[in-house]
User: What shape does this take?
Amino acid sequence: MMKNNAFVFIELLVVLFLITILFSIAVPEYSDYLVKTQIAEGFLLTIPVKKAISDYYAYHGSFPTDNLAAGLLKPEKLSGNYVSQVEINNRQVAVTFGNKSLAKIRGKIIYFIPKISKETIRWYCAEKGNMMIEAKYLGRCVGD
Assistant: This one.
């Protein structure tokens, strides 16, 4: 009789051990997924800004100096749940992550820099100084 109880206890420990291993793998992956989702919001908010810059460039032959010149809302009005503002500054689009975003990206800025190639504008992202976001969260970060 005592052997059966010991066997059940060992099985229970093995199951708990396996669940612990699964959680130790799943929780960091889920955390990374949340960060990527919040960064994706920043990418989406730049779509109308990039379009306005492209239109401005096509009409004027130069880049706008700020949001108002491009015909956009003030930087703090272009925001989302995790992005506090999207601002045109010196040819670049700066996406700032606000207080609702996770600690890994809170207060950090991604800059989208235009490069002209064969009459089309391609966008590249960059970071400056201590505002670095880990590359694994940014993906390819190049596009139209």
In short: DSSP finds two helices and five strands in the chain. The chain has one domain: 2-143. The two ends are 71 Å apart (CA to CA).
